[in-house]
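EI: anyone free to look at a 133-residue chain?
SC: sure, send it
EI:
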Amino acid sequence: MGTPRWDARPENKAKIAALGREWRKKPENKVKQKVATKRWRAANRERVIETRNRWLAKRRETDKSYGRGRHSIVIKHLLMQRDKSICQICGEPVAFADASLDHIIPISRGGSDEATNIRLAHLFCNVSRGNKY
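SC: here you go
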């Protein structure tokens, strides 16, 4: 066997990746990349769908927060009644349009969607809290 091709050698993989990043940064190449990607996707439709489905399946298995926005308006109304339209983070009144449902123990940290783990909060308070508990 001969020596491997230049681009197949492990020590050159970082160089090749860096060259590709540099090429993609140039504005004129961004358009070329977009066109080439579109052309490849059109020619490989089944492969694109298969890859996307595999990605979605993996995300559903590993990411408990997949499919956010499951809570209906009815649940939001019930929480507004239960929590007396008071933000459970800052203690100020909450308007329906500004209300969001906050998970006490975040989904990303093993929390559930049960009513005992959900409380009413201002959207700003909920977002600024992040996934802390």
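EI: Residues 73-129 form a domain with the DNA Binding (I), subunit A fold (CATH 1.10.30.50).
SC: 👍
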